[in-house]
């Protein structure tokens, strides 16, 4: 009422607002707000909403599992989520960078298989792990660089460019060998079997440490460096970022290098887990990684999301898998069905929650 | 300085005021830029003095944006020199220009809604410590800057949570953080209301006092006259001249901008009013009864007669666009009925509406109107081709004829049917859009904000066109935020408020003030409260009154450009 009455006194026909319709008068974070309203504010915020929901969901599933199954509610079950999914966490970290810029990387699963094949075949011919692992990381980073340049220089859609890289990597696996190569290198075996005790009968593997270090670095890079903020800026508006004078091109290429590096590292961690290289391995893993990132609250259009959210997304996938294992009677393929349903719910949730603001 | 003359218009140029400003901070000389098929700038001179608000005036397509982009390094220049604070410069991109002290705030706020206010101000030059961002210093610096502009905003809040007006001021905070010597504001007020404009002007004045040279580009003459000290007029990529605002009458400015007399509008008004009488007993073309849609528009009645121009007036969100979308078949009505020539119809899609010869031209020209990547010709024939069906392609020759006739009739520039529409100025894009709908020979043309963001000349041409179309028997539903425009063109005005139709009036003696009163509280205001003599800050209004003073001037060529041709290619609209 008062707002409308202002119009004639200014004697100025109201100018239409550009973009998103009526003025967005969202809370500014100051002033007295009721806790409920504050909670609602967090939930509907595109920044914190989805990741909060994921966190709550993880806790809920874990608690339900704890009530339903004997022995579920233990520290080791929780830690095993990390042990079993260390490579997926690393993949999801790389994928988070890419998706934050609004891109996508479909090649990561094939690159995991490729790095496993390279590791297995080179170790078989007697190379030292100290050379093989860095070599893999360099090679997969270079592949990422090529993909990034293809996307940037030739303006190829990330979907297509990484699809090409996926076929390339998968094909190279078969060039190396058509069948499984087992790894007998003592260092790899050592890394595969060793457990790091945490006391109270709990333990983790070296892979978990590596994965968590990667997560830590990624968090710092995304939130503490100019590069990281530019990643968010590109997702928020590439054109705006350009006009602000940000190094958009360099950053866009670099996220694919990071994703390539993470895929290589994930491949190495995966071989610690499987102790073999097999060309058909990790098919569809790229989709698991994307699912984890999306469930973890990163918007597929870019700009919003957290690495820790993606870790949470991996844990949600892991806990569903664990529940199905505990259930015993269900086929493990049910995991996929649950993940599919969950993904659907999450994407709709993101739409609904953020639509209230837009 | 004084020795600089204005080659394009030596006779008209006011002598530069050297008393207050010792040396220009920016001096561009002989700037030329060409795009394929277009000479965007032709040997233009331009300069700015520190501590001065300078306005760049011209129609859309005059070269204002191009000149700004040349200055900020977005475009390379083909010829000419740019001097900043006495030194020759040539920027490879906006980042370099910004580093040198030239910052730009664009019409569309080019900030990042997903990041915090502090980051939006500091991004790209964050304070760093130990290789990472020093968040504390960043917060402190951004809080200082916001306080300096008198903005009470939490630096950590998300940018997207603030209104556009605040975002605009935050963009300015970002711009001045680089210790700007020159601040360019490109159409900063186009989405702001009066109070927000006042706030912006307060900020501009304080920056001016700090010695910043400000380039203020706006379509609103009132605002230009309020805030600017000096202005440069461009036309068709050429310099017309540089003037002191105090020494240039508005009517003269307008004439310099469009290069022709603008008495057509006044003339139009009289004819529109005269025509009202003839329309009273005309047959009703379309009639909406209790037409409504939940959450968009309450059930409303809206009859439109053949050859009648009905204006919809109301605030944004009052339901004016929503009602139009129901008529255009864009949204489905969930209550009420629609009858065309008394025959009941249900419109489920725009396609059905088009088959009933109802065309809807959206206010969102860029996203729901033109296809930027296609040529002028393709854009014009699009609706007609869709209507014929894709298996009966319009022959190339016919397309050319069609495009050519509309280009001439609507005076679309550049008149090249192969030009990509995205390279055209806003006004010309609007004309292409109009041509597209006129090509299907509609019986009812719904125009939602057809004149928004376009220059005076194109505005006049479009208004003239609407008028001519109605005279030839087409019904028009005309929506505009500019009430003067609604009043000038409409035979009848329907006023909406809070999603309700509050009045349906013959346009006979209506005034802006009475409309505003209706919009504000749903009743006609008494005389004393309605009479506010300030002219609304609308460019056309200023032109209209200015032109009125020189009623003896011959009818301008804008009027002559009024097309009668668009209604003739009906043969092409014939369906089998």
TrEMBL record, chain A:
<feature type="transmembrane region" description="Helical">
    <location>
        <begin position="130"/>
        <end position="153"/>
    </location>
</feature>
<dbReference type="InterPro" id="IPR001851">
    <property type="entry name" value="ABC_transp_permease"/>
</dbReference>
<dbReference type="GO" id="GO:0022857">
    <property type="term" value="F:transmembrane transporter activity"/>
</dbReference>
<dbReference type="GO" id="GO:0005886">
    <property type="term" value="C:plasma membrane"/>
</dbReference>
<feature type="transmembrane region" description="Helical">
    <location>
        <begin position="253"/>
        <end position="275"/>
    </location>
</feature>
<feature type="transmembrane region" description="Helical">
    <location>
        <begin position="79"/>
        <end position="100"/>
    </location>
</feature>
<feature type="region of interest" description="Disordered">
    <location>
        <begin position="1"/>
        <end position="31"/>
    </location>
</feature>
<keyword id="KW-1003">Cell membrane</keyword>
<feature type="compositionally biased region" description="Low complexity">
    <location>
        <begin position="19"/>
        <end position="29"/>
    </location>
</feature>
<feature type="transmembrane region" description="Helical">
    <location>
        <begin position="287"/>
        <end position="320"/>
    </location>
</feature>
<feature type="transmembrane region" description="Helical">
    <location>
        <begin position="198"/>
        <end position="222"/>
    </location>
</feature>
<feature type="transmembrane region" description="Helical">
    <location>
        <begin position="332"/>
        <end position="349"/>
    </location>
</feature>
<feature type="transmembrane region" description="Helical">
    <location>
        <begin position="159"/>
        <end position="177"/>
    </location>
</feature>
<dbReference type="Pfam" id="PF02653">
    <property type="entry name" value="BPD_transp_2"/>
</dbReference>
<keyword id="KW-0472">Membrane</keyword>
<protein>
    <submittedName>
        <fullName>Sugar ABC transporter permease YjfF</fullName>
    </submittedName>
</protein>
<keyword id="KW-0812">Transmembrane</keyword>
<keyword id="KW-1133">Transmembrane helix</keyword>
<feature type="transmembrane region" description="Helical">
    <location>
        <begin position="48"/>
        <end position="67"/>
    </location>
</feature>
């Amino acid at each position: 009422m008062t707002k409308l009455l202002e119009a004639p006194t200014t004697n100025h026909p109201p100018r239409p607002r550009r973009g998103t319709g009526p003025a967005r008068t969202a809370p500014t974070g100051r002033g007295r707000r009721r806790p409920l309203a504050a909670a609602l504010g967090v939930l509907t915020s595109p920044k914190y909403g989805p990741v909060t929901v994921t966190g709550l969901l993880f806790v809920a599933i874990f608690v339900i599992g704890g009530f339903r199954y004997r022995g579920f509610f233990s520290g080791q079950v929780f830690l095993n989520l990390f042990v079993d999914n260390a490579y997926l966490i690393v993949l999801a970290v790389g994928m988070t960078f890419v998706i934050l810029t609004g891109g996508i990387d479909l090649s990561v699963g094939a690159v995991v298989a490729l790095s496993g094949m390279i590791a297995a075949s080179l170790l078989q011919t007697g190379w030292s792990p100290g050379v093989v692992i860095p070599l893999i990381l360099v090679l997969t980073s270079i592949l990422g660089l090529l993909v990034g340049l293809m996307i940037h220089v030739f303006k190829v859609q990330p979907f297509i460019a990484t699809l090409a890289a996926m076929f390339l990597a998968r094909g190279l696996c078969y060039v190396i060998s058509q069948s499984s190569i087992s790894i007998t290198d003592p260092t790899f075996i050592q890394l595969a079997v060793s457990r790091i005790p945490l006391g109270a009968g709990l333990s983790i593997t070296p892979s978990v440490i590596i994965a968590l270090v990667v997560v830590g670095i990624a968090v710092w890079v995304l939130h503490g460096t100019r590069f990281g903020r530019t990643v968010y800026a590109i997702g928020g508006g590439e054109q705006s970022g350009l006009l602000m004078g940000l190094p958009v091109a360099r950053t866009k290429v670099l996220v694919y290098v990071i994703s390539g590096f993470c895929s290589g590292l994930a491949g190495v961690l995966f071989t610690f887990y499987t102790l073999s290289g097999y060309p058909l391995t990790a098919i569809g893993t790229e989709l698991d990684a994307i699912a984890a990132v999306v469930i973890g609250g990163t918007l597929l259009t870019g700009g919003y999301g957290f690495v820790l959210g993606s870790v949470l997304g991996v844990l949600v996938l892991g806990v569903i898998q664990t529940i199905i294992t505990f259930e015993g009677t269900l086929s493990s393929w049910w995991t996929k069905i649950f993940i599919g349903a969950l993904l659907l719910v999450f994407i709709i949730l993101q739409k609904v929650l953020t639509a209230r603001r837009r | 300085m004084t020795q600089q003359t204005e080659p394009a218009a030596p006779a008209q140029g006011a002598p530069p005021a050297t008393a207050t400003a010792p040396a220009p901070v920016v001096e561009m000389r002989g700037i030329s830029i060409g795009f394929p098929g277009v000479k965007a700038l032709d040997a233009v001179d331009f300069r700015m003095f520190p501590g001065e608000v300078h306005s760049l005036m011209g129609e859309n397509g005059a070269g204002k944006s191009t000149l700004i982009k040349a200055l900020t390094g977005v475009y390379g220049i083909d010829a000419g020199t740019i001097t900043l604070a006495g030194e020759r410069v040539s920027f490879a991109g906006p980042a370099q220009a910004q580093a040198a002290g030239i910052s730009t705030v664009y019409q569309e706020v080019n900030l990042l809604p997903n990041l915090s206010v502090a980051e939006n101000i500091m991004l790209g030059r964050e304070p760093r410590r130990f290789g990472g961002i020093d968040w504390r210093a960043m917060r402190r610096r951004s809080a200082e800057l916001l306080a300096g502009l008198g903005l009470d905003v939490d630096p950590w809040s998300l940018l997207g949570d603030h209104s556009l007006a605040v975002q605009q001021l935050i963009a300015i905070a970002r711009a001045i953080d680089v210790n700007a010597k020159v601040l360019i504001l490109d159409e900063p007020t186009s989405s702001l209301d009066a109070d927000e404009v006042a706030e912006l002007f307060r900020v501009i004045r304080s920056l001016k006092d700090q010695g910043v040279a400000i380039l203020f580009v706006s379509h609103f003459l009132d605002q230009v006259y309020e805030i600017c000290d000096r202005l440069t007029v461009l036309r068709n990529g050429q310099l017309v001249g540089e003037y002191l605002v105090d020494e240039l009458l508005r009517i003269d400015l307008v004439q310099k901008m469009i290069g022709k007399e603008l008495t057509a509008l006044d003339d139009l008004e009289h004819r529109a009013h005269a025509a009202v009488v003839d329309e009273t007993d005309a047959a009703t073309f379309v009639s909406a009864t209790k037409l409504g849609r939940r959450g968009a528009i309450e059930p409303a009645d809206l009859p439109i007669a053949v050859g009648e121009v009905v204006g919809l007036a109301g605030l944004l969100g009052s339901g004016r666009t929503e009602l139009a979308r129901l008529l255009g078949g864009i949204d489905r009505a969930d209550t009420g009925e629609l009858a065309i020539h008394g025959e009941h119809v249900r419109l489920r899609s725009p396609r059905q509406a088009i088959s009933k010869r109802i065309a809807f031209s959206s206010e969102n020209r860029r996203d729901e109107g033109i296809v930027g990547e296609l040529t002028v010709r393709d854009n014009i024939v699009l609706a007609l081709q869709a209507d014929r069906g894709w298996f009966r392609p319009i022959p190339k020759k016919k397309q050319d004829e069609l495009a050519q006739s509309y280009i001439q009739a609507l005076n679309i520039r550049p008149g090249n049917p192969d030009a990509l529409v995205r390279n055209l100025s806003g006004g010309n894009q609007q004309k292409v859009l109009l041509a597209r709908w006129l090509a299907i020979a509609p019986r009812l043309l719904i125009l939602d904000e057809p004149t928004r963001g376009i220059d005076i000349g194109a505005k006049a041409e479009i208004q003239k066109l609407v008028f001519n179309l109605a005279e030839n028997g087409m019904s028009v539903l005309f929506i505009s935020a500019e009430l003067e425009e609604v009043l000038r063109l409409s035979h009848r005005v329907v006023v909406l408020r809070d999603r309700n139709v509050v009045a349906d009036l013959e346009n006979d003696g209506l005034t802006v003030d009475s409309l505003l009163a209706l919009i504000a509280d749903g009743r006609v205001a008494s005389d004393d409260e309605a009479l506010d003599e300030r002219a609304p800050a609308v460019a056309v209004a200023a032109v209209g009154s200015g032109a009125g003073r020189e009623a003896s001037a011959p009818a301008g060529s804008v009027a002559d450009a009024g097309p009668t041709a668009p209604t003739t290619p009906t043969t092409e609209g014939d369906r089998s």
